[in-house]
Amino acid sequence: MSRTTVSYTDDRIYEFTPELEPADTAADGESLTVETIDSLEGAIQKDTDRLQSIPDEVNAATGPIAVAGATPGDVLRVDIEEIRVTEDRGRVVTAPAFGLQQDAADIEHPFTRMTPIDGDTVEFGDVSVPIQPVIGTIGVAPATDSYSTLVPHDHGGNLDTTDMTAGTTAYFPVFQDGAMLAMGDAKAAMADGEMCGTGVEIGTEIDVTLDVVSDPTVSLDRPLVETDTAWKTIASAETMEVAATLANRDLMALLEAAHDWETTEAYLFSSLVGGLEISQVVDPLVTVRNAVPKEYLDDPFGAA
């Protein structure tokens, strides 16, 4: 399959804004390879390199990519087909005033651990961890406000969601003409929660296919991800409780449409199957996803 390559060398952003201009344009249904640089852009290369503070420009996102035919109210479907790491080592770091336990006196801030890549594993000291690449930052131009690539919101952004990986499909609401997709901040491995504030930060090549769902039967307010077994709504907010409420509301809307249920019926059913999952707890907003197994929810948009 012939693919257009979109490189971070010339085309990258540090802020998702409503006024984004395209660096590249893709046809509806086009397959691309998106090259990304590590979130710290090569600044950390050895254990003695320390991140004294979070840079003003961080999590470079390659793009924006305008998708022909995408208009506000549509849904952008992103099939994530393969993610390849492009460095022989990654890095896991702490930084002052960042991370779940940033105030803990017994944890060093800053601290760095370089993680060599050995075949299909990441080496953390004498422990091997399977490489399972994840896209940390992925999103589209927002509706009204602007958000740095460190911040997750309704447009996507720094979702740090482990389901943004090869073999899954991400769906984003389109707020601006062309959608203006951008992605970066990839990790060779990352746990749900991203507790220290980073995963194994690393450069990647990401193969995706982009499709526009025009006039969808179900509208999206926030991102949605499809795995082999489940549909998962994704929401970000200042507190876990608010993010969970938004994610559950979004899931209830899908259930209402699929089963012709009243809102209360969808609310009751949301307590029976699937459930809440934590994406990340370290960014300016926290991110939660809510899963429902596919046996209870058909494709809300139909085949692409």
TrEMBL record:
GO terms for molecular function: hydrolase activity, acting on carbon-nitrogen (but not peptide) bonds, in linear amides. Pfam families: FmdA_AmdA (PF03069). It comes from the Archaea. This is Acetamidase/formamidase family protein. It comes from Halococcus thailandensis JCM 13552. The lineage of its organism: Archaea, Methanobacteriati, Methanobacteriota, Stenosarchaea group, Halobacteria.
